[in-house]
């Protein structure tokens, strides 16, 4: 449950000719704070030039807060979207590049510096990659070609060095009902496009995308040596196969339901589910055959997908595996295949005109394969311990504010309230970076071997996960690297995690106005803590165990509120004919609403009863809400928006602002929003959950 998988915003609505109300004056007794060190966004942390003051705050608060920025910051040609997250990503990537490019070529063999440096230099050596051609994949392609039956295909699916996409995927994760142990999961998979809707919707746009996908698959197969006519026939068969897979998949909104996706099965029960499927071969090849039980996520989908696997011609699966394998390693193959894969997945599906520069792509690859080795170097240079401690204090203030909200919720019964408070007390914040760094000593990185390095990293990671299956879970492990611009809540460990890279402007600045820090990083922290009490996170108790701990009347009262919130978001139009999916995005919308509500309370707690000073004619409350809006500023390509709405649990940023503030009473008072304003909701229709 991350803060953002990728940011996207709908085209801004202009309310031209409107004059905003005069900002509400700060309390007359408010003192003017003495000058201190300047914030990075001068002089006190808020970008006043970002606003479009021709728009009334009550008509489109997103536009009011960031409209001028939206109009003056076009999307770079190598991006599908551009906003606060992307600006920080650009900065963090450059910081990592400065580190990596400064590593000596003669670093001690086996050191992290040697591994990171050699990985980077091999990845950007495109001349060497071109020279090797398809040689690095010849062995894998030959293995696929030699497969003569389903048993051989399943064995290929289990090879960690190939990581072949199939209709059923095996993974290792935390056991949601036993947080002290890991579990092997079986889940639906098998699609090349982002979501089942791309295959099943009948509008002309989706029919055109399917034809473009089929043509793209044929081109990849041709580049790998298939005769053009054969490649065309194989691409048609692959699209037909994936279309049937899509028909069997659960919709994205249903897959969010954690109680529906926890279904333990023994190997004997799996055999009964799909007689004849080669489960034992798959598990043995993956190295998980010692497991006594497995967790099936989408039960009927997995059952039908495994059965369907045994009905598709072997030659069709071989073509399917060749295509998906080549896509998975395209970044370290010759330019023709790399560009073809980007052309479809970047240009066609996300509207991105140009691929990122090779050094920038190397940084992303390093983050995936040697992320903590890079992260250790990153925090040494860019994240002072003082920032960690200041954020920790802010977290604790948010925790206190949440506790106050829980104690006074009018709709929660005492027994449920007590467990909720226990859960809040047990929240573990992880800030900046892990206290224990990952050990990469078993991973071999070889000079000039970009393909081999990527494959060995893939195998290393899988084996690392398999080796820890018998033991207790590692509660010190992080699911993101320190250089990641994101944050997350882990319900099974009941922890909130904030990497170092997001703890910088516009999210956090130790020298910024407190209203700005609470409206920005405070709302982010509140959002992640709120995931512990959203429609899915609330299904785990203080110890992270997935179980029912709510009284029936609390569940009813909670769903009455969340259903109304989903209905509100269902009404937001992103593109013509495409609205936000209020139930798919419900957890993130609850997190946003709870986050800003509790951050506002925490901000006033931090004031200690003192009135906030006025700054540039803005009250403390106005600055708080503007800071919240400004972290979501973003321009997005329509194709990227479509992909997000169909498959991503986050609402586009414009609605993460407008959809939230209209439910917060303090926002109405701060900006004098009255009936008749486009965002106005009568008090009885405003959703208050936490």
Helices, strands, pairings?
Layout (H helix, E strand, L loop, with lengths): L60 H12 L8 E3 H18 L10 H13 L1 H7 L5 H9 L3 H8 L10 E8 L2 E11 L8 H4 L3 H20 L4 H21 L3 H4 L7 E4 H7 L5 H8 L6 E4 L2 H11 L4 H15 L6 H16 L7 H12 L1 H12 L2 H24 L5 H13 L1 E5 L17 H18 L20 E3 L4 E5 L14 H17 L21 H19 L2 E3 L2 E2 L6 H22 L12 H11 L3 E3 L1 H10 L5 H9 L3 H6 L20
Parallel strand pairs: 3-5, 6-8
Antiparallel strand pairs: 1-11, 2-3, 4-5, 7-8, 9-10
Helix pairs in contact: 1-24, 2-16, 2-17, 3-16, 6-12, 8-9, 8-15, 9-14, 16-17, 18-19, 18-21, 18-23, 21-23, 21-24, 23-26
Descriptive keywords:
disordered N terminus, 4-stranded mixed sheet, 690 residues, single chain, Neutral endopeptidase, domain 2, Collagenase (Catalytic Domain), alpha+beta, 7% strand, 11 strands, globular, 3-stranded mixed sheet
């Amino acid at each position: 449950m991350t803060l953002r998988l990728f940011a996207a915003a709908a085209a801004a609505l202009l309310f031209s000719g409107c004059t905003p109300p005069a900002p509400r004056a700060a309390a007359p007794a408010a003192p003017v704070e003495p000058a201190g060190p300047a914030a990075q966004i001068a002089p006190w942390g808020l970008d006043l030039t970002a606003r479009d003051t021709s728009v009334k705050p009550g008509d489109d608060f997103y536009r009011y807060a960031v409209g001028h920025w939206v109009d003056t910051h076009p999307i770079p040609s190598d991006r599908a979207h551009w906003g606060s997250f992307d600006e920080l990503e650009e900065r963090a990537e450059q910081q990592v590049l400065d580190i990596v490019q400064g590593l000596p070529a003669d670093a001690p063999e086996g050191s992290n510096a040697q591994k990171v440096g050699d990985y980077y230099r091999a990845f950007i050596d495109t001349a060497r990659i071109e020279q090797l051609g398809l040689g690095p994949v010849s062995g894998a392609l030959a293995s696929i070609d030699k497969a003569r039956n389903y048993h051989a295909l399943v064995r290929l699916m289990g090879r960690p060095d190939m990581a072949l996409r199939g209709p059923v995927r095996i993974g290792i994760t935390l056991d949601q009902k036993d947080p002290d142990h890991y579990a092997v999961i079986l889940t639906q998979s098998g699609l090349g496009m982002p979501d089942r809707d791309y295959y099943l919707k009948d509008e002309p746009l989706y029919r055109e995308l399917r034809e473009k996908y089929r043509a793209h698959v044929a081109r990849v197969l041709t580049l790998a040596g298939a005769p053009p006519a054969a490649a065309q026939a194989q691409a048609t068969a692959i699209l037909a196969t994936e279309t049937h897979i899509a028909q069997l998949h659960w919709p994205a909104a249903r897959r969010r339901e954690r109680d529906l996706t926890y279904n333990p099965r023994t190997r004997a029960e799996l055999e009964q589910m799909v007689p004849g499927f080669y489960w034992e071969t798959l598990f043995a090849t993956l190295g998980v055959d010692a497991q006594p039980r497995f967790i099936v996520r989408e039960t009927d989908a997995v059952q039908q997908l495994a059965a369907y696997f045994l009905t598709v011609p072997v030659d069709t699966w071989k073509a399917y595996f060749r295509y998906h394998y080549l896509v998975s390693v395209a970044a370290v193959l010759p330019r023709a295949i790399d560009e073809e894969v980007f052309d479809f997945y970047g240009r066609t599906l996300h509207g991105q005109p140009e691929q990122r520069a090779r050094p920038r792509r190397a940084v992303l690859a390093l983050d995936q394969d040697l992320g903590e080795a890079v992260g250790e170097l990153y925090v040494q240079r860019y994240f002072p311990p003082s920032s960690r401690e200041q954020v920790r204090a802010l977290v604790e203030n948010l925790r206190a504010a949440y506790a106050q909200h829980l104690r006074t919720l009018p709709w929660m019964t005492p027994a449920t309230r007590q467990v909720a408070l226990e859960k809040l007390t047990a929240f573990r914040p992880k800030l900046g970076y892990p206290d224990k760094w990952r050990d990469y000593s078993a991973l071999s990185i070889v000079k000039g071997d970009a393909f081999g390095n990527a494959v060995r990293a893939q195998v290393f990671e899988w084996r690392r996960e398999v080796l820890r299956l018998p033991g207790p879970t590692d509660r010190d492990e992080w699911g993101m690297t320190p250089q990641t611009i994101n944050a997350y809540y882990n319900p099974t460990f009941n922890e909130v995690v904030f990497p170092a890279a997001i703890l910088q402007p516009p999210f956090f600045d130790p020298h910024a106005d407190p209203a700005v820090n609470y409206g920005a990083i405070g709302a982010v922290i509140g959002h992640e803590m709120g995931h512990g009490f959203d429609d899915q996170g609330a299904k785990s108790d203080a110890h992270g165990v997935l179980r029912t701990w709510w009284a029936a009347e609390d569940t009813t009262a909670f769903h009455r509120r969340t259903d109304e919130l989903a209905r509100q978001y269902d009404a937001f139009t992103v593109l013509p004919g495409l609205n936000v999916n209020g139930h798919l995005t419900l957890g993130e919308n609850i997190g946003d609403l709870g986050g800003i509500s509790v951050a506002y309370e925490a901000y006033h707690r931090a004031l200690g009863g003192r009135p906030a000073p006025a700054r540039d004619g803005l009250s403390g409350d106005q600055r708080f809400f503007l800071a919240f809006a400004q972290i979501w500023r973003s321009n997005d390509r329509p194709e990227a928006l479509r992909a997000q709405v169909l498959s991503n649990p986050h609402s586009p940023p414009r609605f993460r602002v407008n959809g939230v503030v209209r439910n917060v009473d303090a926002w109405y008072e701060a900006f004098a929003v009255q009936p008749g304003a486009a965002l106005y909701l009568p008090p009885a229709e405003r959703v208050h959950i936490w």
